[in-house]
Write a structure and sequence with these properties.
Blueprint (H helix, E strand, L loop, with lengths): L3 E2 L10 H12 L10 H20 L11 E5 L2 H11 L8 E4 L5 H12 L3 E4 L21 E7 L11 H10 L3 E5 L11 H4 L3 E5 L10 E5 L25 H39 L4 E2 L10 E5 L5 H10 L2 E2 L15 H5 L4 H5 L1 E5 L6 H23 L1
Length: 386
C-alpha cells in the first residue's frame, strides 16, 4: 500500500528543482567563502547574492542606510535559540514574554534561561488557539527584554496577531521575535510588515534542504553569539556557510513566490474538503482551532473517546503518515501543551492528531486518506466497544 504523506509540518519533501540547484552548486566547485583568494571571493559573492535575495523574498530591506541582516543557521531550532538566548544574553533581573503555545525550541530554551534567573511571563490564548494580544499591556514593564510569538502554530495552524503585538511592543521599546517556521512557504510572510525585530524561518519546511535556516534581523539588532571560534556572519553565527544549501534555500523560496496564491488556495481547499468529509461521517469529530484564521495546510482533528497514539499508529499501518504534534516532541506520551493551553476538554486533547498537507498533496490523496481514516476510526471504535 502506497503511503500518503500528511506530516508536512514535520518536514516537506524536497522539490526536484531545489535538488538540482544544490547539485549544480556542488558541480560549480564553490570553495570556502571566507577565503581571501580569488576563488574564495567569487564564492563569497555567490553566497551574499543568495543571502540578499532570500532577505528580499522574506520582506526584508536590503538597500539604503539601514539594511536588514539574514543570519544563516542549521535549522529553525538554532534560529529560535539564537534569538531567545542572544537577545537576552546580558539581561539581569529581566523578563521575557512568551505564549504557552510556542514551539519546544522556544519554550524549553526559555525554561533553561529561567533557571539562571530570567523571569518568564506568559500571554494566554483563547479556546480557538489565538494569543490574547490585549493582555500584553499587563505583562510588559521596564524590565521586559523580549516578546516572542509565533506566526502560525505548528499543531493547530492558527495564525497569530503578530502585527498587533509588535506595534504595542515597539511603543514600549521592547524587541519582538517571531517564529515563522511553519508559516513561511504557506502564507505571505513579510518581515517589515510584521514589524518584528527578528524572524525565524527554515528551508526544509518549504520543500528546501534540511540543514539550513535563517534568523532575519532588523538592522540595529545584534544577538550575542552562541558559538565562538570564527568571524563569519559578523561573529553572530561563526562557522563556514554552505553555499549549496543557501542556493537550495533560495530556490525553494523562489518557487513558492512564483505560485504562492495558487498553492495556498490549493492546500486550503484540500484541507477543508478533508475536514468536511470526515465531519459528515463522524458527528463527534472536533477541528481544533477552526474558529480562527489558520494556515492553509494544517488540520488538528480530534476523535473524542479514542487515543491519539493508537490513531496515529493505526493510520500508519493503513498507509497514512501523520502525527500527534510537533516532531521535536515525537515519542512523548504527554498530551499537547498547545491544546491544554487552549483549555480544551480532556477527551478532545486525548483524541487529537495533526494532519498537514503540502504542494504535493492531491485530491486523490485526500479522497483515499478520508476513506482510510474512516476505516481506522470505525475499527478502533469497534475494538473499544468490544
Amino acid at each position: 500500500m502506497e503511503q500518503i504523506y500528511l506530516d508536512n509540518n514535520a518536514t516537506t519533501k524536497m522539490l526536484p528543482e531545489v535538488a538540482e540547484a544544490i547539485y549544480e552548486a556542488h558541480r560549480a566547485g564553490h570553495v570556502n567563502p571566507a577565503s581571501q583568494h580569488q576563488s574564495g571571493q567569487r564564492t563569497r559573492r555567490v553566497l551574499e547574492d543568495a543571502r540578499e535575495r532570500i532577505t528580499k523574498l522574506l520582506g526584508g530591506e536590503t538597500t539604503g542606510m539601514k539594511p536588514d541582516r539574514l543570519v544563516l543557521t542549521s535549522g529553525g531550532t538554532e534560529s529560535n535559540n539564537l534569538a531567545i538566548r542572544g537577545l537576552t544574553a546580558d539581561a539581569r533581573e529581566a523578563n521575557i514574554v512568551l505564549s504557552p503555545i510556542e514551539h519546544p525550541s522556544i519554550l524549553e530554551t526559555a525554561e533553561k534561561l529561567a533557571q539562571a534567573g530570567l523571569e518568564i511571563r506568559r500571554l494566554p490564548v483563547n479556546h480557538a488557539g489565538v494569543i490574547q494580544a490585549d493582555r500584553l499591556a499587563d505583562l510588559i514593564d521596564e524590565r521586559t527584554r523580549l516578546v516572542s510569538v509565533m506566526l502560525g502554530n505548528h499543531e493547530t495552524g492558527v495564525i497569530q496577531p503578530v502585527e498587533q503585538i509588535s506595534r504595542f511592543a515597539r511603543e514600549q521599546r521592547v524587541l519582538v521575535h517571531c517564529d515563522a517556521v511553519q508559516a513561511a512557504g504557506k502564507i505571505p510572510v513579510n518581515f517589515r510588515t510584521l514589524g518584528v525585530d527578528a524572524l525565524s524561518v527554515s528551508a526544509h519546511k518549504l520543500h528546501g534542504p534540511v540543514g539550513i535556516a535563517g534568523l532575519l534581523l532588523r538592522h540595529d539588532v545584534t544577538p550575542a553569539p552562541m558559538l565562538s571560534g570564527g568571524f563569519q556572519q559578523q561573529g553572530v553565527r561563526p562557522g563556514t556557510e554552505s553555499v549549496p544549501l543557501a542556493l537550495g534555500f533560495l530556490k525553494a523560496l523562489e518557487l513558492w513566490a512564483e505560485q504562492s496564491l495558487q498553492l495556498e488556495g490549493q492546500m486550503r481547499t484540500l484541507r477543508d474538503t478533508l475536514e468536511a468529509r470526515l465531519r459528515s461521517e463522524i458527528p463527534s469529530l472536533v477541528v481544533n482551532g477552526e474558529a480562527a484564521n489558520r494556515l492553509p495546510h494544517t488540520a488538528n482533528i480530534s476523535f473524542p473517546g479514542l487515543n491519539r497514539q493508537a490513531i496515529v499508529m493505526a493510520l500508519d499501518m493503513a498507509g497514512i503518515a501523520c502525527s500527534t504534534g510537533s516532531a521535536c516532541a515525537s515519542g512523548s506520551s504527554e498530551p499537547s501543551p498547545v491544546l491544554i493551553a487552549m483549555g480544551l476538554p480532556e477527551p478532545v486533547i486525548e483524541g487529537s492528531i495533526r494532519i498537514s498537507l503540502s504542494r504535493f498533496t492531491t485530491a486523490t490523496d485526500i479522497e483515499l486518506a478520508t476513506q482510510r481514516i474512516l476505516r481506522v476510526y470505525n475499527a478502533l471504535r469497534r475494538d473499544q466497544e468490544a
